[in-house]
Amino acid sequence: MHPLLIPVVMPMILAALMVGEYALGRVLGKPTHGRRQTLNNLAVTVVYKLYGMAFFAAPFFGYIAMQQRAGIFEWSMTNPLHWIAAWLVLDFTMYWRHRAAHRVAFLWAVHSVHHQSEEYNTTVAARASMFQDTILVVMPLAILGAPVSMAMTIFAFISFVTFFSHTELVGTLGWLDKVFVTPSVHRVHHGKNLPYLDTNYGGSLVIWDRLFGTYAEETEKVEYGTLDGLDSYDPLANNLSPWQKLIEKARNAPTIGRGLLTFVMSPAWDPSIAKPVEPVAKRIPRPSRPRPMRFAVAWTLLAIGGFLQVALAVSYDLPALHVAVIAAIGLAALGVSGAVLDRGPAPWNRRTV
Fold it and tell me: Domain residues of the chain, as ranges?
């Protein structure tokens, strides 16, 4: 599988799923997409692709070196049992990597970007931090000796499956909810309700959550987002603000030691008292909805950023300076798009709702 297949094909898949989900929601009388949040989700996705696309294949290049030097077993690309074993191993490591991303503060500063959306639809599936990494997930398979093409295919498959778990249009599915990561299972994971915090970390299988005591059923309406709240629709600010808050928290620690510990302890850990505090969800006031012209401008800037991302994905021989300039223009367009949404109807009329 070519590593650039994902940044080119995934946006098309996401667009098709988003349009289909939106249309079905209208037919069923269950609106799924708010214009401002959907724009923000897509802008964060394009920032992730613009910034991280060149590094997507890097872990797999390191994977090949690790597999050749440390691979323990011989794997067959034609043996279905080997494919199943690789899937289980990768899903298992995804579980623990995902769980760590919620329990370790500096990892949460990366992963929290995926959870910032206060709506839940297919656009959330591709929302990720520009600092997102892959290497910790795939390296165990390299050590076991699985071929890189097998690892990449399974990784892409699990990533693809996650698109279908990010929707409110599918209810509970009985026994499937107890084995696979269904929409109901993953809705719980995105909830900031106290009963749902730190649950359902599985990638495609929920059996790991059931084995390790982190499984929760959907029993009440899910409130989406992070406890800090979404304080901006600027995709660049969305990526940087978790780090700003974490660094500020560490700087305010009473000692250097506690300040350093802030990065590796739980996100709920308070360095002033050296223990976790009870989580409390914040309510962030919003500026009133932008007028249609602002939405038109924001959509146009998003389209520019998306076009430049695709252009970079299919340009293999551009000089590094050209790539940097194109990426910078795309990121600037997306940042301005977010600023347009944040400003509401006019800078002198920021009535909150």
Answer: 5-45+55-212, 292-342
